[in-house]
Amino acid sequence: MTTSATKLQENYNQQGFLSALPVLNGAELREARQYPWVMGLTKHPCILEVVKAILGPDVILLDSRFICKYPTLKAANIQEKEENKADESKLPYVYWGIAGGPVLSVWLALDDSLKENGALQVIPGSHCSGMLLHRQAVRPGNMLSVNQEIPEELVQVEEAVLCLLSAGQMSIHDGLLVQASDANTSQRRRCGFVIRYFPTCDPDRPRKFHATMLVSGTDQFNHFSNKST
């Protein structure tokens, strides 16, 4: 960078911003675009071993993201922070924007996932009921971007179980499994890395995701023209 620190500070103080500052060279940029440490998690052998046992040997990565619920600032008002709001009962398919198919989701715990900090709750066997009706959430505090929930009369809440995890452990869920989580009322963050997989044999159905990647086996079907390897 040829511009002096004094000039940078002067421009920043006058204009309130700086733009087009060089940071990454070509090699660094190529590496950054590949997200090597993130991709390493999606291809971790301990994860893929279980995924392949369920979906078969030929697996495509659909999507991955980090999801965090942060501690409350005031225990008496758990709605103050958007990241801390509760999830109502829902099917992952709905907020993934997927029309169906054998999609599997992994939650890799980066923090302990406990009752107090909003661990995931699921209703065992509910995936056998297929796609349940969703409606606009009627109560405030739903953290889902689509703001939808399953009507309470369709959910056996008393059958819900907590997926308690220590950091470094994972849980795996069917895309049709009913799940929810409470607000984080503790002083501990709850963060996880969510990874979604599906088998190569699944047809190219409507999805909101524009990129997929083969992470195990081979793809003899080529349903996804945008797939990379």
From TrEMBL:
Coiled coil regions, renumbered to chain: none
Cofactor: Fe cation
Organism domain of life: Eukaryota
Any Pfam family matching the protein: PhyH
InterPro entries registered for this protein in UniProt: Phytyl_CoA_dOase-like
Entry protein name: Phytanoyl-CoA dioxygenase domain-containing protein 1
